[in-house]
Amino acid sequence: MTAETTPTPDPDLLYSAEEEALRDAVRSLLADRGDPATVLAGLESDSPRDSGLWRALGTGIGAAGLLVPEKFGGQGASAREAAVVLEELGRSVAPVPYLTSAVIAVTALLGCDTERADVAGPLAALADGRTVGVLALPWPTPPGGAAQPPVRAGADGTLTGTVTPVADAAAAELLLVWARRPEGPALYAVEAAADGVRTEAVTPLDLTRPLGRLTFDGARGRLLATGDRARAAVERALLTGAGLLASEQLGLAEWCLTETVRHTGERTQFGRPVGSFQALKHRMAALWLEVASARAAARNAADALATDSPDAPVAVAVAQAYCAPVAVRAAEECIQLHGGIGMTWEHPAHLFLKRAKSDEIALGAPGEHREALAELVALGAP
User: Fold this and answer.
1) Most buried residue, 101, 120, 215, 253, by most Cβ within 10 Å?
2) Is the CB of residue 222 less than 8 Å from the CB of residue 187?
3) Phi and psi at residue 217, in whole multiples of 5°?
4) Three-state SS string across the chain, please?
5) 3-state DSSP: the chain helix, strand, coil percent, rounded to 5?
6) Cβ-contact 158, 164 below 8 angstroms
7) Distances (CA, A) of 13 to 27, 129, 220, 225, 298
8) Strands 184-191 and 174-181
9) pLDDT, tens digit, for every residue of 317-330?
């Protein structure tokens, strides 16, 4: 006889009342302080990063602590709520370090021993929004791709090596460094302003998510976790980041579709709106179907992460393999169907194309996720 297995519950792809209330609060804030036109104006100024917006989002609304348990000062919510925030951030391409700090760095810390003061303290600081943290790994690293740490750790805890490109490195006060020791891998915490740490800007395609090069030259780190626990913490952080990045891509695609429908309904040629032309109707209808499918994939990934489903790696791989190209296609269609104005710097459409293209290779390109998916479901190559 074979032991009975408990069936995996069906995913819940709908939004709860609490999630919709959170969406309303975030959307209202971004409409007031972080809409695409405001973001574009900020990129032309001397301070493209809006620290005030981050404080309002992270501390005022409490979004920075959504994934942090209440005993550490967080909200004790789940990946589903964080996904809603990222959908709205995708709709505005706001230059805030939410994904890197409140999702990836927080998840990495939660994978360590939270009973230790040197883990609980940084976790509370990230939850409050007072501190921005980043996981010091190359931004294109996919889940399962951090097997070889880029930084070397000495016996005395000093770190040596270079990591590039790291998203939001310039904004970070706390660096979580994945390093290799003679005894095996380990995760360290390093203050970004500490001696032996140098941060240099790397020219990004997407100006709303700055990249940096981190160089460690004898910087002293605090050991957070070692061996399998450190590896599991980093892998869970990458998996969660990739899964919730799909929600950002969904929000981005939705904005592009909505703005395209609005524009083609207002712009006229030959005495009628160009959106009434059959060829454009077909293109927008096809894009609507892709965005609706992307929503299902992104929500499935968020729900799998929230419920700690054993199918989470599969859900994340599906979401990234599908949502990344949809976001790029939506941004390209937005620019094309806006005509000449879509090609100008003054219109924010280019911000969405650049974010979509940079997101496409962040935390693993679609091809890498398809390969991971094939391995997860034991589907061999032809």
Assistant:
1) 253
2) no
3) -130, 80
4) CCCCCCCCCCCCCCCCHHHHHHHHHHHHHHHHHCCHHHHHHHHCCCCCCCHHHHHHHHHHCCHHHCCCCHHHCCCCCCHHHHHHHHHHHHHHCCCCCHHHHHHHHHHHHHCCCCCCHHHHHHHHHHHHCCCCEEEECCCCCCCCCCCCCCEEECCCCEEEEEEEEEECHHHCCEEEEEEEECCEEEEEEEECCCCCEEEEEECCCCCCCCEEEEEEEEEECEEEEEHHHHHHHHHHHHHHHHHHHHHHHHHHHHHHHHHHHHHHHHCEECCEEHHHCHHHHHHHHHHHHHHHHHHHHHHHHHHHHHCCCCCHHHHHHHHHHHHHHHHHHHHHHHHHHCHHHHHCCCCCHHHHHHHHHHHHHCCCCHHHHHHHHHHHCCCCCC
5) 55, 15, 30
6) no
7) 20, 29, 44, 34, 9
8) antiparallel
9) 999 999 999 999 99
Of 159, 156, 163, which is closest to residue 135 (Cα–Cα)? 163
d(CA 22, CA 260): 26
Each residue's pLDDT tens digit, 84-94: 999 999 999 99
**Please, which pLDDT band fits residue 51 given cuts at 50, 70 and 90?**
confident
CA proximity to 102, closest of 229, 236, 257, 237: 237
Name which of 379, 315, 368, 306 is nearest 144 in CA terms. 368
**What pTM does this model have?**
0.95
d(C-alpha 252, C-alpha 360), whole Å = 12
Q: Are 259 and 251 in contact (CB under 8 A)?
A: no
- φ/ψ (deg, to 5) at 346: -65, -30
The pLDDT > 90 percentage for the chain reads: 82
- Residue 25 CA to residue 57 CA, distance in Å, equals 9
Task: Find, among 168, 10, 90, the residue nearest to 324 by Cα.
Answer: 90
Quick one: CA torsion of 154, 159, 164, 169, rounded to 10 degrees? 150
What is the greatest pairwise CA distance in the chain? 76
Q: Which tokens sit at 115? A: 């009973």
pLDDT in tens, 192-241: 999 999 999 999 999 999 999 999 999 999 999 999 999 999 999 999 99
Q: Is the pLDDT of residue 34 over 70?
A: yes
